[in-house]
Specification:
The complex is a heterodimer. Helix content of chain A is 56%, strand content 10%. Chain A is α+β, with helices and mostly antiparallel strands. Chain A has four domains: 170 residues, Butyryl-CoA Dehydrogenase, subunit A, domain 3; 121 residues, Butyryl-Coa Dehydrogenase, subunit A, domain 1 (Orthogonal Bundle), CATH 1.10.540; 102 residues, Butyryl-CoA Dehydrogenase, subunit A, domain 2, CATH 2.40.110; 118 residues, Butyryl-CoA Dehydrogenase, subunit A, domain 3, CATH 1.20.140.10. In chain A, strands 1, 2, 3, 4, 5, 6, 7 and 8 form an eight-stranded mixed sheet that branches. Chain A has a two-stranded antiparallel ribbon with strand order 9-10. In chain A, helix 11 packs antiparallel against helix 12, helix 13 crosses helix 17 and helix 16 packs antiparallel against helix 17. Chain B starts with a strand and ends with a helix. Chain B is α/β, with parallel strands linked by helices. Chains A and B meet through helix 1 of A and helix 2 and helix 5 of B.
Chain lengths: 596, 256
């Protein structure tokens, strides 16, 4: 027997092979008083300073957007992720998500973008990898919004294939500056920024980061793109023609550009989930209000069962996104808490700690953006014809939302990351899939455990079986394709979705169980968990079936038939989701604000 | 300049307001609370005065059940230097005189130069606390201040009168002034302020130490006013109808 490999639990993916309910997760209900106070402040700010300005911002009013940004800088909201020494507020990643979510409750996705770049990709390269001199020079003014930040990775011919960027940087003969040539595309804050973090190839193939100031000779900013949505945010190309960048503006080291690029993206991904949660909450509140006011056939449309179903669906998906988002951020923060703040490499190590949860960050990005798609679309549907009219809030939200499955890595790329990283974890034996499956026969020989008085015991049991089914499918996929699994993209996407559904379902169940043990039985959150579990187990079953049919080329081997049959039958719940959705929607109608 | 700001916690404007089973107040557990908006302006004015004078102390003071500590903390987050919390755990207090006596008994030893209150609370709306405290402590008092100006040992106050009239008055310090809403733009607490608030002192005064007098007023019943609908069909020719409509607009609706 092999020696068991000891690994740090503070790494992603472990939930796949851990018993349900094994650990306490971080969730909204775990917020401290400081978190709550900050949340209240940001929500108040968003409601008073952003919400009334949504239309004006959408007219690409630079002065307005930047004046709001500066106000937020004064309040310390820009620097949540940045060191205090350089003007940041240096709070935890939970706070960072609370702020992101709160800002998006202001209803201007455009402003959220401006703010998100300023607090994320526009500064994080410098925060993580900048020298003390670079930090001192740039961060304090970025923190108060006096300077605006931007980040340039994408190029006209390289989007998803980011490392294939063609922009070049050549060291001058006297070694005092780099000469940059090339073009960047779709750069948020492009026309408004003062400081740009730009990725370019040194000596043709050493991907590297540079800090470039506006006004650098040979650096030109293109015209504003005419976009489908996000009309109030600046998006331009950037052009470098023999642009001279002093050597002291090299960020990190030559050839370390990928670290800069990917660290920024990991953070951007979970923050996108936070922004989605804020946007959906706002849309849901507006939609419920509309549905209760709008009368057809002599009653508010909210009372029609078809609408109740939709309101319940949105509420459930939103609760789930919220649960998996804060669980992920809690995991990342927990890993960061182990680091020594006085370590000169603290921020680099923070990047590495975040990287260990790249799977979860990508899951939050995919699930958050697709939940947002589904929810905004459904809200617009409930608004009926008025949803299609610009004076009502959903048309803009719909157009603005569309970008979310595209940027921060397309959802296709993120699904490949999910399955790819999970695969890597198995191959490195960081995730002991084989050990887990060894116990499968044992597990299957046990009967359904006593239900006790846990209202979610059937759901938990279903999830235990779903984890085994997922592990089995994954294991068989790896046996069949090995490393080539990465070329089987459709199968890889199905696996990514199975993993995401399991992680999310477990997050929902854990969050609800925690709410119940803290506050006694909460009927409504329990209803949400039951609906989500019933529907998700069906999804996992069907994705698994599709995957197995591919892996086994339509002929499931006899030795697997019975196992799969047993697992899937134990995943079958008989929950009456329709009645639960009616009850949930009626509850939602009694609340002015989203109550969870 | 030592300034006390009296901050009340009241039901938020968007909170549901169901009545309790005895119909003597709202059903508290179902209510979400917020800082009384007029007090927010008083707090901002106090912070501005302190900043202008260049030195001094702003103390956030509140009375009520444990939950009201939240508005004190909010005051501290916005820049108040310390807090005083007067415990009060019985049924909601609406008697302005006994409330003022409680505050006065605690505030008198502190020798504040200035006591600021919002012009009224958004729940009970009595609008008397600041004046009564001034009277009990022998301070100068003014109400409805829309502008303040500290000069040596005096405060000049611009007061809002009826029909668009204003009045400047000059009062010797110490003084108790009630502040009209809208005279300034209340700040948001900064993240640093929020994080720093928990390090600031909140002195707790047990109920037994400040409740000196018997209540002179209790709530008998709280109810939602009945709305009645009355339709009047105006008959006659256009002139008669117009005359009647004019009369209604003048005497019933009172918009003319």
């Amino acid at each position: 027997m092999n020696e068991p490999i000891t690994i740090s639990l503070k790494t992603g993916g472990q939930w796949l092979v851990s018993p349900v309910g094994d650990t306490t997760i971080f969730c909204r209900e775990s917020f401290t008083d400081d978190h709550k106070d900050i949340e209240n402040m940001v929500l108040e700010f968003a409601k008073e300073r952003i919400l009334p300005n949504v239309e004006a911002i959408d007219k690409l009013d630079k002065d307005l957007s930047l004046s709001i940004l500066r106000e937020m800088g004064e309040l310390g909201l820009i620097g949540v992720d940045a060191p205090e020494e350089y003007g940041g507020t240096e709070l935890d990643k939970i706070t960072s998500c609370i702020v992101t979510e709160g800002v998006s409750r202001g209803g201007s996705a455009s402003f959220s973008c401006t703010f998100g770049v300023q607090t994320g990709i526009g500064i994080m390269g410098i925060v993580f990898f900048g020298t003390p001199e670079q930090k001192k020079k740039y961060l304090p003014k970025l923190m108060i919004g006096e300077w605006v930040g931007a980040y340039g990775l994408t190029e006209p011919s390289s989007g998803s294939d980011a490392l294939a960027a063609k922009t070049t940087a050549v060291l001058s003969d006297d070694g005092s500056y780099y000469i940059l040539n090339g073009e960047k595309q779709f750069i948020s804050n492009g026309a408004w920024a003062d400081i740009y973090t730009i990725l370019a190839q040194v000596d043709g193939d050493k991907f590297s980061g540079f800090i470039i100031e506006r006004g650098t000779a040979g650096f030109e900013i293109g015209t504003e793109e005419k976009k489908m949505g996000m009309k109030g945010s600046s998006t331009t190309s950037l052009k470098f023609t023999d642009a001279r960048v002093p050597v002291e503006n090299l960020l990190y080291e030559v050839g370390k550009g990928a670290a800069i690029a990917f660290n920024a993206l990991n953070i951007g991904r979970y923050k996108l989930g936070a922004a989605s949660v804020g946007g959906i909450k706002l849309a849901l509140e507006e939609t419920i209000k509309y549905a209760l006011e709008r009368r057809q056939f002599g009653q508010p449309i909210a009372r029609f069962d078809a609408i109740r179903g939709k309101i319940a669906d949105i509420s459930v998906r939103l609760f789930a996104t919220d649960a998996m988002l804060y669980r992920t951020v809690g995991l990342i923060q927990d890993a960061i808490d182990d680091l020594d703040k006085n370590d000169p490499d603290y921020y680099k190590k923070m990047g590495e700690a975040t990287e260990r949860f790249a799977v979860e960050a990508s899951m939050v990005k995919v699930f958050g953006s697709e939940t947002s798609d589904m929810c905004i679309d459904t809200c617009l549907q409930i608004f009926g014809g008025y949803g299609f009219i610009e004076e009502y809030p959903l048309a803009r939200a719909y157009r603005d939302d569309r970008i979310n499955t595209i940027w921060e890595g397309t959802n296709e790329i993120n699904r490949m990351i999910i399955t790819g990283y999970m695969m890597k974890k198995v191959l490195l034996e960081e995730l002991s899939l084989r050990n887990y499956l060894k116990e499968l026969d044992d597990f299957l020989s046990q009967d359904l455990p006593g239900l006790g008085d846990d209202p979610l015991s059937l759901e938990k049991y279903g999830l235990e079986n779903a984890k085994r089914l997922a592990a089995l499918v994954f294991h068989e996929a790896l046996c069949e394709y090995g490393q080539d699994l990465k070329h089987e993209q459709q199968l890889g996407e199905a696996l990514a979705d199975i993993f995401t559904e399991i992680f999310t379902m477990e997050s929902v169940i854990a969050r609800v169980s925690q709410i119940q043990s803290a506050n006694g039985a909460s009927n409504m959150s329990s209803i949400i968990a039951r609906i989500y579990a019933a529907e998700t187990l069906l999804t996992i079953k069907s994705l698994s079936k599709v995957s197995l049919n591919k892996i086994f080329k339509e002929i499931i081997p006899d030795n697997h038939q019975e196992t799969i049959q047993q697992l899937t039958s134990r995943m079958t719940l008989h929950t009456d989701v329709i009645s639960l959705k009616q009850e949930l929607a009626d509850f939602m109608y009694t609340k002015k604000d989203y109550p969870f | 300049m030592k300034i006390a700001v009296l901050i009340k916690q009241v039901p938020g404007s968007e909170s549901p307001l169901p009545l309790n089973s005895t119909q003597t107040w709202v059903d508290e557990p179902q209510v979400t609370y917020t800082m009384n908006p007029p007090d927010n302006y008083a707090l901002e004015e106090a912070l501005l005065i302190k900043e202008n004078v260049g030195d001094g102390e702003v103390v956030a003071v509140s009375l009520g059940p444990e939950r009201v500590k939240k508005v004190i903390r909010e005051g501290l987050a916005k820049g108040a230097d310390r807090g005083i919390y007067l415990e009060e755990n019985s049924q909601i207090e609406t008697d302005p005189l006994s409330i003022a006596r409680s505050f006065a008994s605690v505030l008198q030893d502190e020798n504040f130069d200035l006591i600021l209150t919002g012009l009224q609370s958004d729940d009970a709306g009595m609008g008397q606390t600041g004046v009564l405290i001034g009277e009990l402590l022998g301070l100068s008092t003014a109400t409805l201040a829309v502008q303040t100006n500290i000069q040596d040992e005096q405060i000049r106050v611009k007061r809002e009168l009826e029909s668009g009239w204003f009045q400047w008055v000059k009062l010797p310090l110490p003084a108790s002034i009630s502040i009209q809403s809208g005279l300034n733009t209340p700040r948001y607490p900064s993240l640093k302020g929020i994080m720093g608030a928990k390090k600031k002192e909140i002195r707790v005064i047990p109920a037994s130490e400040h409740q000196t007098a018997e209540k002179t007023q209790t709530i008998k019943k709280v109810f939602v006013p009945q709305t009645t609908k009355k339709t009047e069909v105006i008959e006659g020719n256009a002139d008669t109808a117009a005359a009647r409509i004019l009369e209604i607009l003048k005497s019933d609706v009172k918009v003319l």
